């Protein structure tokens, strides 16, 4: 099916400060959904003990939302139909707030898993809609930077959101970690409602058309790159601590600082990648993919050089931090008339690639 634009979503004139506030509100939404998705990582032990399940079983609270998001992201733009995207995003954040509140009050593990399914729906929807929204909130010249800011919410969640949630759970109890994210989601829903302009859909999205996008060579290439890079990254990152300690000779006490450095490099990589992708999505995606493919295997071959391990870990963070925003810009160039549909596909493949890891 050939993409066609509908009336009702003309380009908006720039409003500078208001536009920036709107972009920051969308970035807050991506920060909140990623924090919510990964929150159980830091709460697994106390959560499993209180709910009477093993830590392996409790890990479903991390895996399940990602799988649900992988299916929801490509479908939700079509399900949302012609609903105003400001309203859709607001309702998704309200769903996220409710799901985390239910998780905080869950008397049994089954109830918590049901809440985590709702979290997955919210994650998929926010990824699909927010990823392609920056271009509608700012003038064309600022679209690349705005996309980097929106994806910056994801990078910041990895550095700040997850550790802060774990800290809250450690200082109080794991339920308060979920309660804090519920309160954050509620606040972000209010910010989206107040700061976003009315956002009627640019065009109707049909599931058949979303499937047809996968037959476009550029889209298919982008999806394959995302699948390979994300799967490889998370598979390797699972073992980063034992490799740093056992192979590279990094002292156990230095691991936390190195991982924080990795996270900060990821935030920097997101904005560097966004700037590069705004100029040339192809060059940016090739660069981050080549860097990941080169740096990750080298980390296990540094012998006992802790200094070299630190350099490689920073380069890894820079490269992976630029992957999401570079891939998103690639997709938008590959299918400029189907931003939501192609963003949903990219988000679906991204989340599906995390799950096996």
CATH topology of the largest domain: Growth Hormone, Chain: A
User: The biggest beta sheet, please?
Assistant: none
Number of helices, counting only DSSP H or I runs of 4 residues or more: 17
* Average pLDDT score: 86
Extended strand count: 0
Low-confidence stretches: 1-14
- Taken as a percent bin, the fraction of beta residues is under 5%
| Radius of gyration computed on alpha carbons | 20 Å
What is the CATH superfamily label of the largest domain?
A: MFS general substrate transporter like domains
In CATH's first tier, which class of the largest domain applies? Mainly Alpha
Helicity, as a percent range: over 70%
Oligomer: single chain
Dominant shape: globular
The end-to-end span amounts to: 35 Å
Order of helices and strands: HHHHHHHHHHHHHHHHH
Domain module count:
2
CATH architecture of the largest domain: Up-down Bundle
Q: Structural class, from helix and strand content?
A: mainly alpha
């Amino acid at each position: 099916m050939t993409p066609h634009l509908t009336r009702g979503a003309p380009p908006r004139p720039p409003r500078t400060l208001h536009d920036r506030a709107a972009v920051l509100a969308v970035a807050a939404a991506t920060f909140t959904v990623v924090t919510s998705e990964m929150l159980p990582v830091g709460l697994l032990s106390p959560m499993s003990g209180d709910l009477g399940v093993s830590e392996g079983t409790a890990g479903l609270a991390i895996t399940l939302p990602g799988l649900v998001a992988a299916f929801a992201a490509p479908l939700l733009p079509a399900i949302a139909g012609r609903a105003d995207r400001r309203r859709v995003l607001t309702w998704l954040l309200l769903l996220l707030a409710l799901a985390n509140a239910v998780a905080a009050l869950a008397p049994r593990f089954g109830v918590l898993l049901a809440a985590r399914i709702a979290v997955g729906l919210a994650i998929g929807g926010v990824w699909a809609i927010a990823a392609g929204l920056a271009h509608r909130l700012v003038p064309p010249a600022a679209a690349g930077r705005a996309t980097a800011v929106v994806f910056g919410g994801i990078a910041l969640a990895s550095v700040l959101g997850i550790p802060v949630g774990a800290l809250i759970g450690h200082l109080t109890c794991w339920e308060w970690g979920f309660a804090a994210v519920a309160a954050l989601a509620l606040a972000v829903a209010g910010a989206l409602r107040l700061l976003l302009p009315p956002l009627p859909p640019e065009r109707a999205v049909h599931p058949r058309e979303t499937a047809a996008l996968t037959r476009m060579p550029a889209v298919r290439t982008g999806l394959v790159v995302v699948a390979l890079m994300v799967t490889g990254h998370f598979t390797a990152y699972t073992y980063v601590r034992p490799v740093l300690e056992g192979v590279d000779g990094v002292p156990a006490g230095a691991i936390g600082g190195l991982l924080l450095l990795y996270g900060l490099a990821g935030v920097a990589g997101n904005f560097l990648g966004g700037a590069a992708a705004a100029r040339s999505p192809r060059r940016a995606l090739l660069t981050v993919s080549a860097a990941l493919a080169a740096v990750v295997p080298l980390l296990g071959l540094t012998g006992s050089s802790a200094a070299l391990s630190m350099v490689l870990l920073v380069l890894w963070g820079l490269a992976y931090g630029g992957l999401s925003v570079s891939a998103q810009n690639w997709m938008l160039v590959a299918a400029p008339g189907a931003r939501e549909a192609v963003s949903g596909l990219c988000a679906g493949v991204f989340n599906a690639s995390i799950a096996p890891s």
